[in-house]
Write a structure and sequence with these properties.
The complex is a heterodimer of chains A (425) and B (82). Chain A is an alpha/beta fold. Chain A has helices at 20-29, 38-42, 56-63, 66-69, 74-89, 117-129, 140-144, 148-156, 172-185, 202-210, 250-255, 285-299, 318-330, 344-347, 354-368; strands at residues 5-14, 17-18, 34-36, 49-51, 106-112, 163-164, 191-198, 241-249, 262-271, 308-310, 339-341, 370-371, 396-397, 403-410, 414-422. In chain A, the strands form 3 sheets. In chain A, strands 1, 2, 5, 6, 7, 8, 9, 10, 11, 14 and 15 form an 11-stranded mixed β-sheet that branches. In chain A, strand 10 (308-310), helix 13 and strand 11 form a beta-alpha-beta unit. Helix content of chain B is 55%, strand content 0%. Chain B is globular. The model of chain B has no long low-confidence stretch (mean pLDDT 94). Classes of the chains: A alpha/beta (425), B mainly alpha (82).
Chain lengths: 425, 82
């Protein structure tokens, strides 16, 4: 059994806009969500900026009950807000808190990369070390357990199908989409809320800062700090938030007359085996190429069919290698290259949420026929400079868009690639 | 502290956890916290911590075992406050 899968709902909690309306506007305007974070300076971090969604607590208070909020850290709030938005955006009703039958045909895969480190750092460790375990109350476990985000969403939406959290570092959000896609294709579910979330916490970012992979430039001008594709790229800017997509079988979407954004033609994942130049922290280029080609083969497409690439592109030394991998996989040189852009230029790298938020951005660009700018790419890296005509420094209307690719790569040398087709194309 | 005031403070702490709004609307001393108000039993530990913070008392685990109704909580706290 292999069924067609479409995207019928979107949700986003992003550093540059909450809700898909605000998020789309921010993407079109090239609005950066990177801000100075005084706490990072106070703690002596090299990186002093980050992408953190604004106004989330107010939004959460308006969306969830008081007892739910007591057990929701930032990661849960981001995940649940994005998932509820995607669900209602798909035209599905939010179920009553009690008494309603579970929706046995619907599930969720909400991934996270690091998880509830704020709860661990601010509550579990200090209270436990102080001999005050009892003071943790009943809500610590659900906020730190790996599956917390999906468990939260499953309860709010009364989901009765598979409800799980995946984790594959920075590939997580896109991999979640792949898992839901396979489940619907196989006929095991009709709808899957898929995405990823990542909390905003200096405890999450500390290890990356110690690795010296975070951007230390432009603390005085945060919007300039995230510079994918740029010669002056100097590491990624940590981000946070959540993205969610309602994937649905075409039959189900048609039966209920749902609005369709795009068809998810293919979702492919693999691992470079930490060989051939790949390692715990760097991708094996052969793995990346195979992942993209695997998605193309699944979709029955050639490289020339792709109109837009929303790359992983973190603003590290890996960007030139990624562009080279796309060029090889699509068999297209600089003169014939499709649009390539990086949502991270506006929101930073949201780790486990990145692939999901950026997949939402990709579907929005495709459905609404525009390409968002790649900020701070005026000074292209010399190896990328030949591709200049494919890199939008400003937003472009793009009525020709039909096929868009979103890839995400993560520590552990894991890769994922999604291919979307505009529904009315 | 007057029992009416104590009742009101206890109720304020329990209310966010109550899933049965109808039962909450006609709550009294005999209202059962789990069975009537439909408070999730796992959350009782959070309710007890909130009692401790609000009233500056300590409530032992074995005391909690005897709290079933709103009245039980009010009487326990009243006794602790002396």
């Amino acid at each position: 059994m292999s069924r067609r899968v479409v995207v019928t709902g979107l949700g986003a909690i992003a550093p540059n806009g909450n809700g898909i309306g605000e998020f789309e506007l921010a993407l079109r305007k090239g609005r950066s969500g990177i801000r100075a974070i005084p706490k990072l300076e106070e703690l002596g971090f090299g990186c002093r900026v980050a992408g953190v969604p604004q106004g989330v607590d107010e939004l959460a208070s308006a969306t969830f009950r008081e007892d739910e909020l007591l057990a929701m850290n930032a990661n849960h709030r981001f995940a649940a807000l994005a998932a509820v938005e995607a669900w209602t955006d798909a035209g599905l009703a939010r179920p009553a808190p009690d008494g309603s039958e579970p929706d046995w045909a619907s599930g969720a895969v909400i991934g996270t990369g690091i998880g509830g480190m704020d709860t661990i750092g601010e509550k579990v460790v200090p209270l436990t070390d102080a001999g005050k375990v009892r003071r943790l109350g009943s809500t610590a476990v659900e906020q730190v357990m790996a599956s917390g985000p999906s468990a939260r969403v499953g309860g709010i939406l009364a989901l009765g199908n598979q409800v799980t959290t995946n984790s594959s570092a920075c590939s997580t959000g896109a991999e979640a989409v792949q898992i839901g896609f396979e489940r619907i294709r196989a006929g095991l579910a009709e709808r899957m809320v898929c995405g990823g979330s990542e909390g905003a916490s200096h405890y999450i970012w500390a290890g990356f800062d110690a690795m010296r992979v975070l951007s230390r430039i432009h603390p005085e001008a945060p919007e300039r700090a995230s510079r994918p594709l740029s010669a002056s790229a100097a590491g990624f800017v940590p981000g946070s938030g959540a993205g969610a997509l309602v994937l649905e079988s075409l039959e189900s979407a048609e039966a209920r007359g749902a609005r369709v954004y795009a068809e998810l033609l293919a979702a492919h994942v693999n691992c470079g085996g930490q060989r051939g130049g790949g390692s715990m922290t760097a991708p094996n280029p052969a793995g990346v190429v195979r992942c993209i080609r695997g998605a193309l083969a699944m979709a029955g497409l050639a490289g020339r069919d792709v109109d837009l690439v929303n790359g992983h592109l973190t603003a590290t030394g890996a960007d030139p290698r990624e562009v080279r991998a796309w060029s090889e996989a699509l068999e297209r040189g600089p003169d014939a290259f499709p649009w390539i852009t990086a949502t991270k230029s506006m929101i930073g790298h949201a780790l486990g949420a990145a692939g999901a938020i950026e997949a939402v951005a990709t579907v929005l660009m495709l459905a609404r026929r525009f390409v968002h700018p790649c900020l701070n790419a005026e000074d292209l890296h010399p190896e990328i400079a030949p591709f200049a005509r494919a890199i939008p420094l400003e937003a472009r209307e793009a009525p020709e868009l039909k096929i868009a690719a979103k890839a995400a790569f993560g520590f552990g040398d894991v890769n994922s690639c999604l291919l979307f087709r505009r529904w009315d194309a | 502290m007057e029992q009416a005031e104590l009742f009101s403070k206890v109720l304020k702490i329990i209310s966010p956890f109550a899933k049965n709004q109808d039962a909450l609307a006609k709550v009294g001393m005999d209202t059962h916290i789990l069975d009537d108000l439909k408070v999730n039993s796992a959350r009782l530990v959070d309710v007890v911590l909130a009692f401790e913070d609000e009233f500056g008392i300590e409530i032992a685990d074995e005391d909690v075992d005897d709290v079933n109704t709103v009245g039980d909580a009010v009487r326990l706290i009243g006794a602790k406050l002396g």
